[in-house]
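Subject line: Sequence and fold of a protein, written as C-alpha cells
Area: Proteins and the way their chains fold up in space.
Start of record: The labelled sequence and C-alpha cell lines come straight after this line.
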Amino acid sequence: MTHGRSQVDEKLLLHGVDVTGSAMLTRPGVIAAAAFAAQAHQGQMRLTRQPYITHCVETAAITESLLSLTFYGEDDDRRAHDRCKA
C-alpha cells in the first residue's frame, strides 16, 4: 500500500475512501497532501471509530463533485485541483 492508496476489486481507495473515477483525488499532489494529513492526524478517530483522515478525503470528494459542476477547461481544472489540495 502506497500512501494509504490501494486497489481492491477495481476500486481505488485513498485512506479507505473509494475515489474510483476521481480526477482530482488520484493526482500525485493530492495523494501527497492526503498522506501528510494522515500523518498529522495519526491516532485521531472520529466518533464512528474511523480514522480522522477519512473525513478529510470524503469532504474533498464532495468538494470535487460540486466543483465539477461549475468548472470547465484546463485553467479551471487547475484551480479546482488547488482547492482540493487545500
About this structure: The first helix runs from residue 28 to 40.
